[in-house]
From TrEMBL:
It comes from Micromonas pusilla (Picoplanktonic green alga). Residues 174-197 are annotated as: Disordered. The lineage of its organism: Eukaryota, Viridiplantae, Chlorophyta, Mamiellophyceae, Mamiellales. One of its GO terms (cellular component) is mitochondrial matrix. InterPro entries: TrmE/GcvT-like, YgfZ/GcvT. GO terms for biological process: iron-sulfur cluster assembly. Residues 179-188 have a biased composition (Gly residues). This is Uncharacterized protein.
Length: 197
């Protein structure tokens, strides 16, 4: 187990799958327009394949902020084609409430919501230089982590992505990287699986 503070203060490059986060797939032709209405950041860039992830907060019908969320464009569909779905990286302890809120807010929109937290995981990677002022996010990070997107909050936080369980297992050397647990803070909380170099 690697606490989130270890990712920020340790001396080694670290990769981890976060048990404190759970993944929701948001699909359908109205997915982007729904999210554009209910989150605090502009999600329109996610219409493009290969778009960088977006960090935002999910708000209720009255504009109250409810949950933080990282939104990623899914790279491939289950059949191997290009996917137009989005993967929402949400706090595990607020996941059910976030899904219920989205179901309420979608009204008649053509949007599908699928819990894929049992076969996907949020992976983060940070390196010593990433935590120094002015770090560029890749200086001492092992090459195997550099395909992950840069954390959208700040380059010094390293890299963060959503991967299928099989890819996480190959990357981190674990057969079961996914799962619920931990508190759902936006910095990642406890890690279910970790590796250091």
């Amino acid at each position: 187990r690697v606490a989130s503070s270890s990712l920020m203060t340790g001396r080694l490059a670290v990769g981890a799958a976060l048990a404190s986060r759970r993944v929701l797939r948001i699909g359908g032709e109205d997915a982007l327009s729904l999210l554009q209405r209910v989150v605090t950041n502009d999600v329109r860039p996610l219409a493009s394949p290969g778009a960088a992830p977006v960090y935002a907060a999910l708000q209720n019908a009255h504009g109250r902020l409810e949950h933080d969320v990282f939104l990623h464009r899914e790279m491939m569909s289950a059949t191997g084609g290009v996917s137009g779905a989005l993967l929402a990286d949400l706090p595990s302890d607020g996941f059910d409430a976030a899904v219920a809120l989205l179901m309420k807010l979608r009204l008649r929109a053509a949007v599908t919501l699928d819990d894929v937290g049992d076969d996907h995981a949020v992976v983060v990677a940070a390196a010593e230089d990433d935590r120094e002022e002015g770090g560029r996010g890749t200086s001492v990070l092992p090459a195997r982590f550099q395909f992950l997107p840069v954390d959208p909050r700040w380059v010094g936080l390293g890299r963060r992505g959503v991967l299928p369980a099989a890819a996480v297992a190959a990357l981190l050397g674990s057969a079961s990287p996914c799962g619920r647990g931990g508190s759902g803070g936006s910095d990642g909380g406890d890690a279910s699986t970790s590796t250091s170099t």
